[in-house]
Amino acid sequence: MKKTMSVVAVASLFVAGSAMASGYRIPEQSLDSTAKAGANIASADKADAAYYNPANMSWLDDAWQIEGTATYLHLSSIDYDDNRGSMFDSSSETENFLLPTFFVVSPDYNNFRLGLSLTAPYGLSKRWEDNMLSKAQANKFSLKVFDLNPTVSYKVNDMFSVAGGVRMIYGEATVMRDASDLYTYTGLGDGSALWMNGDTVEWGYNLALDVRPNENWNIALTYRSNVDIGFDDEDVLAVLYSGYEIPTTGDVTVPAPAVLAFSTAYTCNKWTFDVTIDQTFWSEYESLSFDFALLPDASYPKNWDDTIAVRLGVEYELNPAFTLMGGIAYDENPVPDEYVGFELPDSDAWLFSAGVRYKQSEQLEYGVSVLYDYKEERDVVTATGINGEFSNASAFLVSVGMSYKF
């Protein structure tokens, strides 16, 4: 397939959700974050602070620090049971991925620290292949988003630090929608399909501040800006009624929403507790508008809701070599009932996690963590033909990471 793009399909792709968090966010980007269900902002004390809380870089050991994590991600099959009978029942395909991330923090330079992170904060893959209704909306949706984020922190004094950075976001998308069976069944024609491959680069920023009332207590506030992911004036290939292709151009823009997080961590003896509350500003996604050169323009209301996630993380220093970690979180979903689709069968989620780190030396540390994401069942009726329940949505993560200081 040549590198062409269906604008309608691209917009649908970017509102499709992974099973990891509200919408299509993936908060878990490092070993510690997976182990603590995303409660890793005020308590970030390794190189992954460059991403989660760059202001916290000011308090790290005065050395070069690097960290790498590889995460295996398994997305379960989602079941759809139609209230009208089994004719439209469907199950999505299971998905398996390997997600690498990387972090680095510099030594102190006159109270300044430099950081760099390479993460994949958004992503999904969803395939429905066994029913005409689900295939028509989401035969295949695949999204990869990489965030390259250089940051700099400044230690104002022993209690206060600030930081900021620039985000370069690269997105790559593939979409297939196959309504041929549905068109034949309803007598609308010989069939209809859309497909695309496309990529883009966009820019954003992030800010952070960190306060340490004492050496055991840390308070952090972080903000990652909204980034409008735009596909403009690209080649479009709309395949309408089998055998008839209409090449054209078009544009559409959808948001990667801003995230504001408040986090506080406290260390007592061998225990460290982290409470993180983050808000994702999905309300930026008010409508979906298409502007085609050779096809009729279209606009659809979405009116997504802002969401809140509450995350609790804990660490326990079992001995000088081993540290145990755990977490629990509750994450709202942003999609009102009337806008739920096969490209986003999203619902509120509970997350449970655990992990362990092993300190081999003062320089080298590595570990493993696991996370289970359970999505609640959801029964919806929409104007797009959905009248049933989505169930059994879940995700399972295994992260293996290593950190090194020199």
Which characteristics define this entry?
single chain; 406 residues; mainly beta; 4-stranded antiparallel beta sheet; 5 helices
Write the layout of secondary structure elements.
Blueprint: H1 7-14, H2 31-35, H3 49-52, E1 65-75, E2 79-82, E3 90-91, E4 95-105, E5 112-127, H4 132-138, E6 140-155, E7 160-178, H5 180-186, E8 192-214, E9 217-224, E10 227-240, E11 245-256, E12 259-268, E13 271-280, E14 287-292, E15 298-301, E16 307-317, E17 322-331, E18 349-359, E19 364-375, E20 378-381, E21 387-391, E22 394-405
Antiparallel strand pairs: 1-4, 1-22, 2-3, 2-21, 4-5, 5-6, 6-7, 7-8, 8-9, 8-10, 9-12, 10-11, 11-14, 12-13, 13-16, 14-15, 16-17, 17-18, 18-19, 19-22, 20-21
